[in-house]
Amino acid sequence: MWYNRAMHPTLAILAAKRQSVRNKLRPLPFELAVSLPLLAVMVAVFLLGGYRFFFILFRFLRDSPPFGTMLTERLLAMVFLAFLSMLVFSNIVTSLSTLYLAGELEFLLSRPIPYAVTFFAKFWESVLYSSTAFVVMGLPIFVAYGRVHEAPLYFYPLVFLFYLPFLIAPAAAGTVLTMLLARIFPARKTRATFCVLFAFLLAALAIVAHLVGKGTFAQVDASFTMGQLMDALRLSDIPYLPNHWISQGIIASAQGDLRAAGFYFLALLSTALLCLEICSWLAPRVYYPGWARTRESDTQRSGRVVLPVFTWLEWLMRPIPRPVRALLLKDLRVFWRDPAQWAQLLLLFGLLII
Question: What is the domain partition of the chain in residue ranges?
Fold first, then answer.
């Protein structure tokens, strides 16, 4: 049995979700049997390539005193600042789907259990969807950093320990913002709006990076100093943000300074617990009214709705053979209905820009 009578209701919902996934994978669908080996090869190539790149980078910085150490700290803080911002946006998009648009919510919210139970079950599901990519992307960075700086063996499990509160804090912050927005606006409109805003944010980051690179690194001469570079990275090292705490905690762990590492871990943990406490206070008050508003909006939109964008795409794809065109449009519609894939795609483009 995947549950027992003594199990907490939130854990029972998560266990039912896990069993549902297992049932869908037995037997393994043909498309997954074909795509999973290819995906495994792509992930392995990414991990090995990323490890090699960061190993060379960290080794170069280590052998470039006195600025190499300071630059390494700023770069780690910059990476985690990028992760932090993308985690917030990713959790907003993902939580709108898991908390407001999932098909099983009508059944769960009609059961004699507190709304907070359903909320936290879907919240942890959202955290899993939006954070898996960051765990994978961080592996080559931390392994390379530990190898270059000859970190002790306990450094690697400590990195995962730091990751847990770092992932939870922006997830809870994004979910709080989602609940407040869904209480005012229908969830579907909020989801689309944030995807558009995130796309504009990525475009703005790309333009800024291009202008900064063109105006700064194109003039690497005597007028360019290391101090200017450190000033440019100063924004990433604000001591009151979680990205500073996790970067400093990881550096302290690699150096064997467990006292400093414990301080930064407790700062992350207390922040994550505070964000969860805010969620637990807010969910019973605004979660169900926001979900009910979304259901009312869906009822008013009853019937088959054809989005204009798909009509335009179908017109643009007229030169493509009909079977191929139908398959492409079907995949695009599936992608549009599954915002979990939106988050992964937005994260991919965000990392490419950064």
Answer: 30-304
